[in-house]
Design goal:
By secondary structure, the chain is an alpha/beta fold. It contains twelve helices and 15 strands. Helix content is 34%, strand content 17%. A hairpin with a 2-residue loop joins β11 and β12. The structure holds pyridoxal-5'-phosphate.
Length: 403
């Protein structure tokens, strides 16, 4: 038996997971992933916060098809005007506060983080950065440097210098943010740390401190943004006015994208000393921007109060299950604490097993940093019948834990 064998390598593909599920997706529609050989999975995690508007939403596919008929890549980003980028920027800015009046489209969440950290250095002329304990911001060197999980970082040191971390939700440490700091980077609601919802008072005190010392407040809304928490952007729950917002995942409607929102005056500093301060061949790709345009149109049509009613129903049903010790939720962003990593493994595996043996199961997934809990981020779009079926399939997975 080859110790390096895996369902991916056997197909000549590299993958970094130790736990490949080994399933092949044949097609996906709405909240359902249809598997080769039969069986379907209710996508209760939206591909980790990406397919938030369901798979193959007609508005998103329509925007992609329109763009495909016009053009794909035309020139490296920023040299030619491309109408779809302008439209996507307009649609995105309509969801943001007025002072965030410029968008820079990139390829991924991690790249948005890289660009945000660079922009903060350019705007302030400073180099120190603060992250927050529990934060996850991506897997490139810069994004990893500002992420806090040492277990994921130590093999790649040296990482970026001059980075320090603030404790989560604790005001007394904020005096460490002084006039040498370029920016503080924080996930508005922490995803990988197990859906940790911050105190409003802490976030506001952090913002005030940044303003006092001239440091920028960079919010990572890559996972918690685009409607996931029951508002277009999670920072609206806390009354924040960030200097830079990083976006990705669900923004592309299933296409790979990242984006920064900042003020025009801040964004201008990328264009001089040196010019081309952040460049990318494929960032702002016309198809990715078309995906974003479609996704933003779908988000605009969401009925937030109806959605909140749905998630309240999910919370009632899930938190009443005997396997669930505790539940954290903001909108459709949820974590279920099961007390032990084995219970999480049982629940996640049960979802797959049900699809293979009974024709229907639920796609659940763990967190990188919290072994005792699993995540839920169901699609924000879906009819009552599908969504009720999805909830009952998740509850079926929990039954396997209790049994
Ligand atoms: C909060 C957060 N920031 C950044 C990233 C990195 O995004 P990407 O994987 O698109 O590089 C992720 C990815 O999971 C994330 O959850």
């Amino acid at each position: 038996m080859d110790p390096h064998s895996s369902p991916f390598l056997d197909h000549g593909l590299a993958s970094t997971t130790l736990h490949p599920l080994g399933l092949k997706v044949q097609r996906a529609e709405g909240p359902w992933l249809h598997l080769e050989g039969g069986g379907k999975l209710f996508d209760a995690i939206s591909g980790i916060g990406v397919s938030s508007f369901g798979h193959g939403h007609p508005n998103i596919l329509g925007a992609l098809k329109t763009q495909m008929d016009q053009h794909l890549h035309a020139m490296v980003y920023g040299e030619l005007m491309q109408e779809v980028q302008i439209e996507a920027s307009q649609a995105l800015r309509a969801t943001l506060p007025d002072h965030l009046d410029a968008i820079y489209f990139l390829n991924s969440g991690a790249e948005a983080m890289e660009a945000a950290m660079k922009l903060a250095k350019r705007v302030t002329g400073r180099r120190r950065l603060f992250g927050v304990e529990g934060g996850y911001h991506g897997s490139t060197h810069g994004a990893l440097s500002i992420s806090s999980n040492e277990g994921r970082k130590s093999a790649y040191r040296p990482l970026l210098p001059d980075i320090d971390f603030l404790p989560w939700n604790e005001e007394q440490d904020l005096e460490r943010v002084d006039a040498t700091v370029a920016a503080v980077v924080v996930e508005t609601v922490q995803g990988d740390a197990g859906i940790r919802i911050p105190k409003t008072s802490w976030l506001l005190a952090l913002q005030k401190k940044c303003q006092e010392v001239g440091a920028l407040l960079i919010l990572d809304e890559i996972q918690c943004g685009m409607g996931r928490t029951g508002k277009p952007w999670a920072f609206a729950h806390f009354g924040l006015q960030p200097d830079i917002v990083c976006m990705g995942k669900a923004l592309g409607g299933g296409m790979p994208i990242g984006a920064l929102a900042a003020s025009k005056s801040h964004m201008k500093s990328f264009a001089h000393s040196p010019a081309l301060g952040h460049i990318t061949t494929f960032g702002g790709h016309p198809l990715a921007c078309a995906g974003a345009l479609g996704a933003l149109q779908v988000m605009e049509q969401l009925d937030w109060s109806q959605l909140e009613k749905r998630w309240c129903g999910w919370e009632r049903a899930l938190s009443a299950h005997p396997a669930v010790h505790h539940m954290r939720r903001l909108g459709g962003f949820m974590a279920l604490e099961l007390g032990h990593a084995d219970n999480v493994e049982r629940a996640v595996k049960a979802g797959i097993h049900h699809a293979q043996t009974e024709g229907e199961g639920a796609m659940l997934f763990w967190f990188l940093s919290v072994p005792t809990a699993f995540r839920l981020a169901p699609p924000l779009v879906g009819n009552d019948e599908d969504m009720e079926r999805g909830l009952s399939l998740v509850l079926r997975c929990l039954d396997e834990v209790a049994g």
